[in-house]
Specification:
about 45% helix, about 10% strand, 6-stranded parallel beta sheet, 2 domains
Length: about 280
């Protein structure tokens, strides 16, 4: 094959060495829909998220009704929503999305850290929960984690809920009982699990506890086997859903009000987001 022939083949996307078409291995973007009623905050979120080359905002809505009208035609990979919205709440939206766009993963971004809201969101189908005071790196991690089929809780929520779960209850507590399996967890395993939830590596945990990394790995394996759960986020979510943490289980009680009473100041939140752009 002459030089001219090789050049012609390369111009049409053919590998001259194999004489076969070259194949693009570019990974498809994660298609995201935003639901946030404050326009300035929504625009700030969009600008922040689209800095990432693998994210694509395909829709943005200011209310549950608008989102329900548009999402069926979009079928996004991920829904990022607040809970406090005008009219119907974000919790109602989470339940409806399962019907209209069943393959869409659902991530909550909110100011509400009360366990009542966390549990209600998870029971409605949320796959992740992030507070609005999280930094941009944690939000990006949450989007990627949830979009790949995993669960995600921001560190502030995970450490708070997990601590309540592992500490158990005082005698006579009328809340849902801690599963018997947790009684087999040793004190050292509790210490390891708490640090896993905080995102610490095996080496860091080993240094803090004065043991070897291999010992930490053994404790980690024992914990996952005993609890039949694969990561700290799954353990924490299990605890919340089953009312095994700091407050009474939802049970048959009424869900949180459609519009939560406490909201972040949108301009302050946008300033925080913009600083990361």
């Amino acid at each position: 094959m002459g030089i001219a022939d090789r050049e012609n083949l390369m111009q049409v996307g053919i590998d001259a060495r194999s004489s076969s078409p070259s194949v693009s291995l570019r990974k498809p973007k994660i298609r995201i829909v935003l639901v946030e009623d404050h326009a300035i905050l929504r625009e700030g979120l969009k600008a922040l998220i689209e800095i990432e080359s693998d994210f694509d905002i395909v829709g943005e809505f200011g209310s549950v009704e608008d989102c329900l009208e548009g999402i069926a035609g979009l079928q996004p990979d991920l829904l990022l929503t607040d809970l406090a919205l005008p009219g119907r709440s974000g919790i109602e939206l989470l339940a409806e999305i399962q019907r209209l766009s069943p393959l869409t993963r659902k991530l909550v971004l909110t100011a509400h850290e009360n366990e009542e809201y966390i549990r209600a969101a998870l029971n409605a189908g949320a796959n992740g929960y992030v507070l609005k005071d999280a930094n941009s790196a944690e939000l990006m991690l949450a989007i990627r984690t949830v979009s790949t089929g995993q669960q995600f809780l921001c560190k502030a929520i995970a450490s708070k809920i997990l601590s309540g779960y592992l500490s158990g209850y005082a005698p006579g507590d009328q809340r849902t009982a801690v599963p018997a399996v947790t009684q087999s967890i040793t004190e050292r395993e509790r210490e390891v699990l708490t640090r896993i939830a905080l995102g610490n590596s095996n080496k860091l945990i080993a240094r803090e506890l004065g043991v070897s990394p291999k010992t930490v790995e053994k404790h980690r394996s024992n914990l996952m086997r005993k609890l039949q759960l694969h990561n700290a986020a799954a353990i924490t979510m299990f605890a919340i859903r089953n009312g095994m943490t700091g407050s009474a289980p939802l049970g048959g009680s009424a869900p949180p009000s459609n519009r939560a009473p406490t909201r972040t100041q949108p301009l302050a939140a946008v300033r925080s987001l913009a600083s990361a752009v």
